[in-house]
Design brief:
Blueprint lengths: L14 E5 L6 E2 L2 E2 L3 H15 L3 E5 L10 H10 L3 H10 L4 E4 L5 H8 L6 E4 L13 H8 L4 E4 L21 E3 L1 H14 L6 E5 L4 H4 L2 H8 L2 E4 L4 H7 L14 H11 L3 E2 L3 E5 L8 E5 L8 E5 L1 H11 L4 E5 L12 H11 L5 E5 L1 H9 L8 E2 L4 H7 L5 H4 L5
Parallel strand pairs: 1-4, 1-7, 4-6, 5-6, 7-8, 9-10, 9-15, 10-11, 15-16, 16-17
Antiparallel strand pairs: 2-3, 12-13, 12-14
Bound molecules: adenosine-5'-diphosphate and 1,3-bisphosphoglyceric acid.
């Protein structure tokens, strides 16, 4: 990579703003998977060991700023405090959590920092201007530091104030995680060993569906499961009950079905339930017979067998997005079986991308069975699509 890295910066005594991706799964105030925090440690430790004052910034979840009630609820749910507590357990220096994103409390905390100290500020999405890359916000944040480091690989596909705007004001470099991700992903995707099989799932349909167009060009098979599959099933004219659907992506799905032909593989059955949580009825049905009022929450056993068959002989596998709502054991089977099948492939380069997919693989005990577990879902897909990643593009060249 021709971009500057942290090693190219003279960080001693400097206030270094580091954009990390600490968007980790949290349930009942507890972090259920800290992979993204652990993955940022090489950069954080390097900086503290070299005498930097490290100011960490990250988003957590999504916050709706259009509706005041939803905004307040989002802030409450996505408070960064548990992340700061976990970080403190993982580093030797002092971590100060500042529960705001601007103002005197933040500025004083930074002014009081010694070399090797760490400040983690509140969720960047508490600011309405973050996701819009508001120039005033970016300039304000940049004023809090001397240098900027981009190490939030999971968010480098977002052109936000904390990932891109801020970098326009300061000398900048990529962190070790971003470097490692690019090295590993390019090893998998540039001149891949064939057959190359891509498996997509998860819930961020509108975000990720477009990548299928490019995957149909570069992969030998594209398997679609998880929440993403139902937009395709709807595009085929099937009834999908109350399953996840992105209405405005149906036309795109139709195009991909026509373009993909046999290359595009869809699930044939689903585990369906009459509610997302606390369902009173759960059953396995063919995807031709999803009853009204039921939603597909996992791929069914026939789909598992089909996907396993399609995976046989694969030499490169790229997997992004769980096959079902794996957080609930009732809907975890598809994800477990697919994860297992990929991990058992002989001599295959296997890459998982995405916060939830990585969490699933780690939770299921498959951490060491993959060639690379990427901390970025959308980001790794966009990289593999050949798209420019704004959070890396903005970083200074060497
Ligand atoms: N059929 C489905 N219906 C609703 N949500 C689903 C379904 N299948 C998977 N999911 C959800 O998708 C989420 C992960 O999606 P996504 O964010 O796209 O993946 P990643 O974080 O790996 O990139 C998980 O929380 C999972 O519960
Ligand atoms: O979890 C993330 O992306 P991913 O689900 O694609 O892996 C990143 O933290 C980006 O979050 P966002 O999709 O809310 O911008």
């Amino acid at each position: 990579m021709a971009k500057q890295t942290v090693r190219d910066l003279d960080v001693k005594g400097k206030r270094v703003l580091v954009r990390v991706d600490f968007n980790v799964p949290i349930k009942d105030g507890k972090i259920t998977n800290d992979n993204r925090i652990v993955s940022a440690l090489p950069t954080i430790n390097y900086l503290t060991e070299h005498g930097a004052k490290v100011i960490l910034m990250s988003h957590l979840g999504k916050i709706d700023h259009k509706d005041p009630e939803k905004c307040e609820a989002g802030k409450k749910k996505n408070n960064m405090a548990p992340v700061a507590a976990r970080l403190q357990e993982l580093v030797s220096g002092k971590v100060t959590f500042v529960p705001v994103t601007r103002g005197e409390e933040l500025e004083n905390a930074i002014a009081a920092m010694n070399e090797g100290d760490i400040v983690l500020m509140q969720n960047t999405r508490y600011e309405k201007g973050e996701s819009k890359n508001d120039p005033d916000l970016a300039a304000y944040w940049a004023g809090l530091g001397d240098l900027f480091v981009s190490d939030a690989f999971g968010s480098v596909h977002r052109a936000h104030a904390s990932t891109v705007g801020i970098a326009t004001h300061l000398p900048s470099a990529c962190g070790f995680l971003v470097q490692k991700e690019i090295e590993n992903l390019s090893a998998a995707i540039d001149n891949p060993k064939r057959p190359l099989v891509a498996i997509l799932g998860g819930a961020k349909v509108s975000d990720k569906i477009a990548v299928i167009e490019n995957l149909l060009n570069i992969a030998d098979k594209v398997i679609v499961g998880g929440g993403m599959a139902y937009t395709f099933l709807k595009a085929q004219g099937k009834e999908i009950g109350t399953s996840l659907l992105e209405e405005d992506r149906i036309e795109m799905a139709k195009e991909f079905l026509a373009k993909g032909g046999d290359k595009l593989v869809l699930p044939v059955d689903s585990v369906v339930a009459n509610a997302f949580e606390n369902a009173t009825e759960v059953k396995t049905v063919s995807n031709d017979e999803i009853p009204a009022g039921f939603m597909g929450l996992d791929i069914g056993p026939k789909s598992v067998e089909l996907f396993k068959k399609e995976l046989q002989g694969a030499k490169t596998v790229v997997w992004n997005g769980p096959m079902g709502v794996f957080e609930n054991p009732a809907y975890a089977n598809g994800t477990i079986e697919v994860c297992k099948a990929i991990s058992e492939l002989p001599d295959a380069m296997t890459v998982i991308g995405g916060g939830d997919s990585a969490a699933a693989a780690i939770q299921l005990g498959f951490k060491d069975k993959f060639t690379h577990i990427s901390t970025g879902g959308g980001a790794s897909l966009e990289y593999m699509e050949g798209k420019e990643l704004p959070g890396i593009a903005i970083i200074q060249e060497k």
